[in-house]
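Q: How would the structure tokens look for this protein?
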Amino acid sequence: MKFYVDPDVCISCGLCPEKEGEVFRMNDEGVAEAYQEATKDNEESAIDAMDSCPVEAISQV
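A: Here is the predicted structure in token form.
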């Protein structure tokens, strides 16, 4: 499962990599990005990270 973080919407709160660091990370500009696809093992926590985003910057692609 792939995710996308809209850099124009992200407020750099760091919640998504805190919840699922194997899918999300903060890039050099301090904005979150989805750098890996979710696996069966971390899919649930990646979806939780998406659903927890305070500005709804994360979507499934």
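The mean pLDDT is 98.

Strands lie at 3-5, 24-26, 32-34, 58-60.

Upvote if useful.
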